[in-house]
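It would be a great kindness if you could assist me with a short task in structural biology. The matter concerns a single protein, recorded as an amino acid sequence and a row of C-alpha coordinates. Kindly check, if you would, that the fold set down in the C-alpha coordinates agrees with what the sequence suggests. Thank you for your consideration; the sequence and its C-alpha coordinates are set out here:
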Amino acid sequence: MTYIRTNAALRAKRIAFLAAAAGISVMLGAGAACATTVVKWLHLELDPAYVAKWEEIAKAYEEKHPDVDIQMQFLENEAFKAKLPTLLQSDDLPDFFFSWGGGVLKQQSETGALQDVTAALNADGGKLRNAYSAASVSGLTFDGKVWAMPYKVGLVSFFYNKELFAKAGVKAEDIKTWASFLEAVKKLKDAGIVPIAGGGGEKWPIHFYWSYLVMREGGEKVFDAAKKGEGEGFLDPAIIKAGEDLAELGKLEPFQPGYLGATWPQTLGVFGDGKAAMILGFENTEANQRKNAGDGKGLSPENIGRFNFPAVEGGAGKVTDTLGGLNGWAVTKKASKEAIDFLAFLTNAENERSMAKAAMLLPVAVGADDGVTNSLLAQSAKQLAASTWHQNYFDQDLGAAVGRVVNDVSVEIVSGQMSSQDGAQQIQDAFELEQ
Protein backbone atom coordinates (compact mmCIF):
# COMPACT_ATOMS: atom_id res chain seq x y z
CA MET A 1 0.00 0.00 0.00
CA THR A 2 1.34 3.44 -0.94
CA TYR A 3 0.92 6.33 1.46
CA ILE A 4 1.12 9.85 0.06
CA ARG A 5 3.46 12.33 1.64
CA THR A 6 1.66 15.53 2.50
CA ASN A 7 4.15 18.21 1.50
CA ALA A 8 7.20 17.88 -0.79
CA ALA A 9 8.75 21.17 0.28
CA LEU A 10 8.51 20.10 3.88
CA ARG A 11 10.34 16.87 3.01
CA ALA A 12 13.30 18.86 1.71
CA LYS A 13 13.28 20.95 4.85
CA ARG A 14 13.17 17.80 6.94
CA ILE A 15 16.10 16.26 5.03
CA ALA A 16 18.14 19.35 5.81
CA PHE A 17 17.05 19.15 9.44
CA LEU A 18 18.03 15.50 9.69
CA ALA A 19 21.37 16.13 8.00
CA ALA A 20 22.13 18.88 10.48
CA ALA A 21 21.04 16.64 13.35
CA ALA A 22 23.32 13.88 12.08
CA GLY A 23 26.24 16.28 11.93
CA ILE A 24 25.66 17.38 15.49
CA SER A 25 25.48 13.76 16.60
CA VAL A 26 28.85 13.01 15.01
CA MET A 27 30.42 16.01 16.70
CA LEU A 28 29.01 14.94 20.05
CA GLY A 29 30.03 11.34 19.53
CA ALA A 30 26.44 10.11 19.51
CA GLY A 31 25.65 6.83 17.77
CA ALA A 32 22.55 7.70 15.74
CA ALA A 33 20.85 10.57 13.96
CA CYS A 34 17.37 11.86 14.79
CA ALA A 35 14.78 9.54 13.23
CA THR A 36 11.53 10.54 11.53
CA THR A 37 8.32 8.96 12.86
CA VAL A 38 5.99 8.08 9.98
CA VAL A 39 2.26 8.31 10.73
CA LYS A 40 0.09 6.48 8.17
CA TRP A 41 -3.45 7.80 7.74
CA LEU A 42 -6.06 5.74 5.81
CA HIS A 43 -9.24 7.48 4.66
CA LEU A 44 -12.03 7.22 2.07
CA GLU A 45 -12.79 10.89 1.43
CA LEU A 46 -13.72 11.64 -2.19
CA ASP A 47 -13.85 15.43 -2.07
CA PRO A 48 -10.47 16.93 -3.03
CA ALA A 49 -11.30 20.15 -1.18
CA TYR A 50 -11.77 18.21 2.05
CA VAL A 51 -8.53 16.30 1.52
CA ALA A 52 -6.78 19.61 0.90
CA LYS A 53 -8.04 20.87 4.25
CA TRP A 54 -6.64 17.77 5.95
CA GLU A 55 -3.32 18.29 4.19
CA GLU A 56 -3.28 21.87 5.45
CA ILE A 57 -3.82 20.65 9.02
CA ALA A 58 -1.18 17.94 8.61
CA LYS A 59 1.32 20.49 7.32
CA ALA A 60 0.67 22.73 10.33
CA TYR A 61 1.34 19.79 12.63
CA GLU A 62 4.51 18.77 10.77
CA GLU A 63 5.86 22.29 11.00
CA LYS A 64 5.52 22.10 14.79
CA HIS A 65 6.87 18.53 14.85
CA PRO A 66 9.64 18.26 12.19
CA ASP A 67 10.40 14.70 13.30
CA VAL A 68 6.89 13.49 12.27
CA ASP A 69 5.90 12.60 8.70
CA ILE A 70 2.11 12.37 8.06
CA GLN A 71 1.33 10.15 5.06
CA MET A 72 -2.18 9.74 3.63
CA GLN A 73 -3.73 6.84 1.75
CA PHE A 74 -7.13 6.78 0.02
CA LEU A 75 -9.38 3.78 -0.56
CA GLU A 76 -12.80 3.99 -2.23
CA ASN A 77 -15.69 3.19 0.12
CA GLU A 78 -16.45 -0.36 -0.98
CA ALA A 79 -12.77 -1.23 -1.45
CA PHE A 80 -12.12 0.15 2.02
CA LYS A 81 -14.71 -2.17 3.56
CA ALA A 82 -13.48 -5.16 1.55
CA LYS A 83 -9.75 -4.72 2.14
CA LEU A 84 -9.63 -3.37 5.68
CA PRO A 85 -10.02 -6.72 7.55
CA THR A 86 -7.05 -8.18 5.66
CA LEU A 87 -5.07 -4.98 5.95
CA LEU A 88 -5.46 -4.93 9.73
CA GLN A 89 -3.77 -8.32 9.94
CA SER A 90 -0.91 -7.38 7.61
CA ASP A 91 2.46 -5.74 8.22
CA ASP A 92 1.36 -2.68 6.23
CA LEU A 93 -1.48 -1.58 8.47
CA PRO A 94 -2.09 2.16 8.90
CA ASP A 95 -1.71 4.00 12.21
CA PHE A 96 -5.33 5.07 12.09
CA PHE A 97 -8.32 4.82 9.78
CA PHE A 98 -11.85 6.17 9.38
CA SER A 99 -14.49 4.37 11.43
CA TRP A 100 -18.29 4.43 11.45
CA GLY A 101 -18.29 3.09 15.02
CA GLY A 102 -21.00 0.66 16.06
CA GLY A 103 -20.76 -3.10 15.83
CA VAL A 104 -18.05 -3.04 13.16
CA LEU A 105 -15.71 -1.07 15.43
CA LYS A 106 -16.58 -3.39 18.33
CA GLN A 107 -15.72 -6.46 16.25
CA GLN A 108 -12.45 -4.87 15.15
CA SER A 109 -11.57 -4.16 18.79
CA GLU A 110 -12.15 -7.82 19.65
CA THR A 111 -9.62 -9.00 17.04
CA GLY A 112 -6.74 -7.32 18.84
CA ALA A 113 -6.02 -5.14 15.80
CA LEU A 114 -6.90 -1.87 17.55
CA GLN A 115 -5.36 0.16 20.31
CA ASP A 116 -7.42 1.17 23.34
CA VAL A 117 -7.15 4.98 23.55
CA THR A 118 -8.81 5.33 26.95
CA ALA A 119 -5.56 6.18 28.74
CA ALA A 120 -4.75 8.92 26.22
CA LEU A 121 -8.19 10.47 26.70
CA ASN A 122 -7.98 10.26 30.50
CA ALA A 123 -4.44 11.66 30.82
CA ASP A 124 -3.97 15.01 32.60
CA GLY A 125 -7.25 14.67 34.46
CA GLY A 126 -9.23 13.79 31.34
CA LYS A 127 -8.15 16.89 29.42
CA LEU A 128 -8.57 15.25 26.02
CA ARG A 129 -11.76 13.39 26.94
CA ASN A 130 -13.33 16.66 28.07
CA ALA A 131 -12.40 18.29 24.76
CA TYR A 132 -15.08 16.18 23.02
CA SER A 133 -18.80 15.94 23.55
CA ALA A 134 -19.65 13.21 26.05
CA ALA A 135 -21.96 11.50 23.55
CA SER A 136 -19.18 11.20 20.96
CA VAL A 137 -16.82 9.48 23.41
CA SER A 138 -19.59 7.25 24.76
CA GLY A 139 -20.60 6.15 21.28
CA LEU A 140 -17.09 4.83 20.58
CA THR A 141 -16.83 3.02 23.91
CA PHE A 142 -17.30 -0.73 24.43
CA ASP A 143 -16.90 -2.52 27.75
CA GLY A 144 -15.57 0.63 29.36
CA LYS A 145 -12.79 1.17 26.79
CA VAL A 146 -12.64 3.81 24.03
CA TRP A 147 -11.62 2.36 20.67
CA ALA A 148 -11.50 5.43 18.42
CA MET A 149 -10.81 9.14 18.62
CA PRO A 150 -14.03 11.12 17.98
CA TYR A 151 -14.17 13.04 14.71
CA LYS A 152 -17.67 14.05 13.67
CA VAL A 153 -21.36 13.36 14.05
CA GLY A 154 -23.68 12.84 11.10
CA LEU A 155 -27.37 12.98 10.26
CA VAL A 156 -29.49 11.38 7.54
CA SER A 157 -32.38 13.53 6.33
CA PHE A 158 -34.26 14.41 3.15
CA PHE A 159 -32.96 17.06 0.75
CA TYR A 160 -35.19 18.40 -2.00
CA ASN A 161 -35.12 20.48 -5.16
CA LYS A 162 -37.24 23.55 -4.43
CA GLU A 163 -37.97 24.26 -8.09
CA LEU A 164 -39.25 20.73 -8.76
CA PHE A 165 -41.35 20.81 -5.60
CA ALA A 166 -42.91 24.09 -6.72
CA LYS A 167 -43.57 22.70 -10.19
CA ALA A 168 -45.46 19.75 -8.69
CA GLY A 169 -47.24 21.87 -6.09
CA VAL A 170 -45.57 20.06 -3.19
CA LYS A 171 -44.75 21.92 0.00
CA ALA A 172 -41.99 20.47 2.17
CA GLU A 173 -43.52 21.93 5.31
CA ASP A 174 -46.60 19.76 4.73
CA ILE A 175 -44.59 16.52 4.83
CA LYS A 176 -44.98 15.60 8.49
CA THR A 177 -46.10 11.96 8.33
CA TRP A 178 -45.27 8.91 6.21
CA ALA A 179 -48.72 9.18 4.64
CA SER A 180 -48.10 12.80 3.62
CA PHE A 181 -44.68 11.81 2.26
CA LEU A 182 -46.28 9.15 0.05
CA GLU A 183 -48.79 11.75 -1.16
CA ALA A 184 -45.89 14.03 -2.11
CA VAL A 185 -44.32 11.15 -4.07
CA LYS A 186 -47.58 10.64 -5.96
CA LYS A 187 -47.87 14.37 -6.76
CA LEU A 188 -44.35 14.46 -8.14
CA LYS A 189 -44.98 11.42 -10.33
CA ASP A 190 -48.22 12.96 -11.61
CA ALA A 191 -46.20 16.04 -12.61
CA GLY A 192 -43.80 13.87 -14.62
CA ILE A 193 -40.98 14.25 -12.09
CA VAL A 194 -38.90 11.42 -10.63
CA PRO A 195 -39.63 11.74 -6.90
CA ILE A 196 -36.45 10.25 -5.38
CA ALA A 197 -32.87 9.59 -6.39
CA GLY A 198 -32.16 6.06 -5.15
CA GLY A 199 -28.86 4.20 -4.84
CA GLY A 200 -29.71 0.51 -5.00
CA GLY A 201 -26.41 -0.58 -6.50
CA GLU A 202 -24.51 -0.22 -3.23
CA LYS A 203 -27.62 -1.18 -1.21
CA TRP A 204 -26.74 0.71 1.98
CA PRO A 205 -28.39 3.96 0.77
CA ILE A 206 -31.72 2.11 0.69
CA HIS A 207 -31.26 0.76 4.22
CA PHE A 208 -31.74 4.33 5.49
CA TYR A 209 -35.44 4.00 4.65
CA TRP A 210 -35.90 0.66 6.42
CA SER A 211 -33.89 1.85 9.43
CA TYR A 212 -35.80 5.08 9.87
CA LEU A 213 -39.12 3.26 9.50
CA VAL A 214 -38.07 0.75 12.18
CA MET A 215 -37.22 3.68 14.43
CA ARG A 216 -40.52 5.41 13.72
CA GLU A 217 -42.67 2.28 14.10
CA GLY A 218 -40.94 0.64 17.04
CA GLY A 219 -38.95 3.34 18.78
CA GLU A 220 -35.75 2.85 20.74
CA LYS A 221 -37.22 0.18 23.02
CA VAL A 222 -38.04 -2.24 20.19
CA PHE A 223 -34.72 -1.82 18.40
CA ASP A 224 -32.66 -2.19 21.58
CA ALA A 225 -34.57 -5.35 22.48
CA ALA A 226 -33.90 -6.80 19.02
CA LYS A 227 -30.17 -6.04 19.35
CA LYS A 228 -30.10 -7.79 22.72
CA GLY A 229 -31.97 -10.84 21.42
CA GLU A 230 -34.92 -10.12 23.67
CA GLY A 231 -38.63 -10.59 23.00
CA GLU A 232 -39.46 -11.31 19.37
CA GLY A 233 -36.20 -9.77 18.19
CA PHE A 234 -36.32 -8.57 14.58
CA LEU A 235 -39.64 -10.35 14.16
CA ASP A 236 -41.32 -7.78 16.38
CA PRO A 237 -44.61 -6.63 14.78
CA ALA A 238 -43.37 -3.03 14.67
CA ILE A 239 -40.31 -4.06 12.64
CA ILE A 240 -42.44 -6.08 10.24
CA LYS A 241 -44.79 -3.10 9.89
CA ALA A 242 -41.76 -0.92 9.02
CA GLY A 243 -40.96 -3.25 6.13
CA GLU A 244 -44.56 -3.06 4.97
CA ASP A 245 -44.28 0.75 4.97
CA LEU A 246 -41.17 0.47 2.81
CA ALA A 247 -42.92 -1.92 0.43
CA GLU A 248 -45.75 0.60 0.11
CA LEU A 249 -43.22 3.20 -1.03
CA GLY A 250 -41.71 0.73 -3.49
CA LYS A 251 -45.07 0.08 -5.14
CA LEU A 252 -45.16 3.75 -6.17
CA GLU A 253 -41.92 3.24 -8.17
CA PRO A 254 -40.44 6.42 -6.71
CA PHE A 255 -36.84 6.08 -7.90
CA GLN A 256 -35.11 6.88 -11.18
CA PRO A 257 -34.94 4.18 -13.88
CA GLY A 258 -31.99 1.86 -13.25
CA TYR A 259 -31.71 2.78 -9.56
CA LEU A 260 -31.01 -0.85 -8.62
CA GLY A 261 -27.61 -0.52 -10.29
CA ALA A 262 -26.81 3.04 -9.22
CA THR A 263 -23.80 3.76 -7.02
CA TRP A 264 -24.00 6.48 -4.40
CA PRO A 265 -21.95 9.00 -6.44
CA GLN A 266 -24.25 8.35 -9.41
CA THR A 267 -27.28 8.83 -7.16
CA LEU A 268 -25.93 12.17 -5.96
CA GLY A 269 -25.41 13.08 -9.61
CA VAL A 270 -29.05 12.29 -10.42
CA PHE A 271 -30.14 14.71 -7.71
CA GLY A 272 -27.49 17.30 -8.61
CA ASP A 273 -28.51 17.20 -12.29
CA GLY A 274 -32.11 17.99 -11.33
CA LYS A 275 -33.35 14.58 -12.49
CA ALA A 276 -35.03 13.71 -9.18
CA ALA A 277 -36.81 15.87 -6.64
CA MET A 278 -35.51 14.30 -3.41
CA ILE A 279 -32.67 12.32 -1.94
CA LEU A 280 -32.31 10.76 1.51
CA GLY A 281 -28.71 11.42 2.38
CA PHE A 282 -25.99 12.62 4.68
CA GLU A 283 -25.61 16.09 6.15
CA ASN A 284 -23.05 16.99 3.45
CA THR A 285 -25.38 16.15 0.56
CA GLU A 286 -25.39 19.73 -0.72
CA ALA A 287 -21.63 19.69 -1.26
CA ASN A 288 -21.49 16.15 -2.63
CA GLN A 289 -24.31 16.57 -5.16
CA ARG A 290 -22.39 19.50 -6.61
CA LYS A 291 -19.25 17.41 -7.05
CA ASN A 292 -21.10 14.51 -8.69
CA ALA A 293 -23.33 16.55 -11.00
CA GLY A 294 -22.66 16.33 -14.71
CA ASP A 295 -21.59 19.98 -14.95
CA GLY A 296 -19.60 19.92 -11.73
CA LYS A 297 -21.85 22.63 -10.32
CA GLY A 298 -25.09 20.88 -9.45
CA LEU A 299 -28.01 22.60 -7.79
CA SER A 300 -27.39 25.97 -6.22
CA PRO A 301 -27.57 25.98 -2.42
CA GLU A 302 -30.55 28.33 -2.67
CA ASN A 303 -32.48 25.67 -4.60
CA ILE A 304 -31.97 22.95 -1.98
CA GLY A 305 -34.13 22.49 1.10
CA ARG A 306 -34.21 19.76 3.72
CA PHE A 307 -36.73 18.15 6.06
CA ASN A 308 -36.75 15.50 8.77
CA PHE A 309 -37.69 11.92 8.01
CA PRO A 310 -41.44 12.00 8.69
CA ALA A 311 -43.28 10.46 11.63
CA VAL A 312 -45.40 7.33 11.29
CA GLU A 313 -48.92 7.72 12.61
CA GLY A 314 -49.44 5.34 15.52
CA GLY A 315 -45.74 4.46 15.74
CA ALA A 316 -43.86 4.39 19.04
CA GLY A 317 -40.94 6.40 17.69
CA LYS A 318 -40.63 10.18 17.74
CA VAL A 319 -39.96 12.49 14.79
CA THR A 320 -37.13 13.87 16.91
CA ASP A 321 -35.37 10.47 16.90
CA THR A 322 -32.46 10.73 14.48
CA LEU A 323 -30.38 8.35 12.37
CA GLY A 324 -26.81 9.11 11.45
CA GLY A 325 -23.19 8.48 12.08
CA LEU A 326 -20.79 8.95 14.90
CA ASN A 327 -17.48 8.79 13.16
CA GLY A 328 -14.04 8.52 14.60
CA TRP A 329 -10.47 7.54 13.79
CA ALA A 330 -9.71 3.99 14.94
CA VAL A 331 -6.11 3.64 16.11
CA THR A 332 -4.28 0.41 15.28
CA LYS A 333 -2.19 -1.61 17.71
CA LYS A 334 1.13 -0.52 16.19
CA ALA A 335 0.32 3.22 16.18
CA SER A 336 2.85 5.49 17.86
CA LYS A 337 2.14 8.11 20.51
CA GLU A 338 2.81 10.64 17.75
CA ALA A 339 -0.18 9.26 15.81
CA ILE A 340 -2.48 9.81 18.79
CA ASP A 341 -0.98 13.25 19.37
CA PHE A 342 -1.68 14.17 15.75
CA LEU A 343 -5.28 12.94 16.05
CA ALA A 344 -5.76 15.14 19.11
CA PHE A 345 -4.47 18.04 17.00
CA LEU A 346 -6.64 17.16 13.98
CA THR A 347 -9.78 17.10 16.13
CA ASN A 348 -9.09 20.02 18.46
CA ALA A 349 -11.64 22.85 18.63
CA GLU A 350 -9.68 25.14 16.32
CA ASN A 351 -9.31 22.60 13.53
CA GLU A 352 -12.84 21.21 13.92
CA ARG A 353 -14.15 24.76 13.73
CA SER A 354 -12.13 25.30 10.55
CA MET A 355 -13.47 22.08 9.02
CA ALA A 356 -17.02 23.02 10.03
CA LYS A 357 -16.62 26.38 8.28
CA ALA A 358 -15.55 24.46 5.17
CA ALA A 359 -18.84 22.49 5.45
CA MET A 360 -16.90 19.27 6.03
CA LEU A 361 -18.52 18.14 9.25
CA LEU A 362 -20.70 18.66 12.27
CA PRO A 363 -18.05 18.88 15.00
CA VAL A 364 -17.65 16.83 18.16
CA ALA A 365 -15.02 19.14 19.67
CA VAL A 366 -16.44 21.24 22.50
CA GLY A 367 -16.69 24.89 21.47
CA ALA A 368 -16.43 24.27 17.72
CA ASP A 369 -20.18 24.54 16.97
CA ASP A 370 -19.85 28.18 15.97
CA GLY A 371 -17.97 27.01 12.89
CA VAL A 372 -21.16 25.61 11.33
CA THR A 373 -22.07 28.49 9.03
CA ASN A 374 -23.52 26.58 6.06
CA SER A 375 -27.31 26.97 6.24
CA LEU A 376 -28.18 23.33 5.54
CA LEU A 377 -25.52 22.03 7.89
CA ALA A 378 -26.75 24.43 10.56
CA GLN A 379 -30.25 22.98 10.15
CA SER A 380 -28.83 19.50 10.65
CA ALA A 381 -26.91 20.66 13.71
CA LYS A 382 -30.10 22.16 15.13
CA GLN A 383 -32.01 18.93 14.56
CA LEU A 384 -29.26 16.91 16.23
CA ALA A 385 -29.25 19.26 19.21
CA ALA A 386 -32.93 18.42 19.76
CA SER A 387 -32.53 14.68 19.12
CA THR A 388 -34.32 12.42 21.60
CA TRP A 389 -32.44 9.32 20.38
CA HIS A 390 -29.51 9.37 17.94
CA GLN A 391 -29.01 5.96 16.39
CA ASN A 392 -25.89 4.92 14.47
CA TYR A 393 -26.43 3.50 10.98
CA PHE A 394 -28.04 0.07 11.37
CA ASP A 395 -25.58 -1.66 9.04
CA GLN A 396 -22.73 -0.40 11.24
CA ASP A 397 -24.38 -0.83 14.61
CA LEU A 398 -25.39 -4.44 13.97
CA GLY A 399 -21.97 -5.52 12.71
CA ALA A 400 -20.77 -6.41 9.24
CA ALA A 401 -22.53 -9.76 8.80
CA VAL A 402 -25.98 -8.67 10.01
CA GLY A 403 -25.51 -5.25 8.41
CA ARG A 404 -25.04 -6.81 4.97
CA VAL A 405 -28.32 -8.70 5.38
CA VAL A 406 -30.10 -5.49 6.45
CA ASN A 407 -28.85 -3.76 3.30
CA ASP A 408 -29.80 -6.68 1.04
CA VAL A 409 -33.25 -7.04 2.60
CA SER A 410 -33.98 -3.32 2.32
CA VAL A 411 -33.40 -3.39 -1.43
CA GLU A 412 -35.36 -6.62 -1.86
CA ILE A 413 -38.36 -5.25 0.03
CA VAL A 414 -38.54 -1.86 -1.70
CA SER A 415 -38.16 -3.49 -5.13
CA GLY A 416 -40.98 -5.95 -4.40
CA GLN A 417 -38.78 -9.06 -4.47
CA MET A 418 -39.28 -9.97 -0.82
CA SER A 419 -41.99 -9.63 1.80
CA SER A 420 -41.36 -7.72 5.00
CA GLN A 421 -41.96 -10.90 7.03
CA ASP A 422 -39.34 -12.83 5.06
CA GLY A 423 -36.92 -9.92 5.30
CA ALA A 424 -37.31 -9.71 9.07
CA GLN A 425 -36.78 -13.46 9.31
CA GLN A 426 -33.54 -13.25 7.32
CA ILE A 427 -32.23 -10.51 9.59
CA GLN A 428 -33.20 -12.48 12.69
CA ASP A 429 -31.49 -15.60 11.32
CA ALA A 430 -28.31 -13.63 10.58
CA PHE A 431 -28.39 -12.10 14.04
CA GLU A 432 -28.75 -15.50 15.74
CA LEU A 433 -25.83 -16.90 13.75
CA GLU A 434 -23.62 -14.16 15.19
CA GLN A 435 -24.51 -14.92 18.79
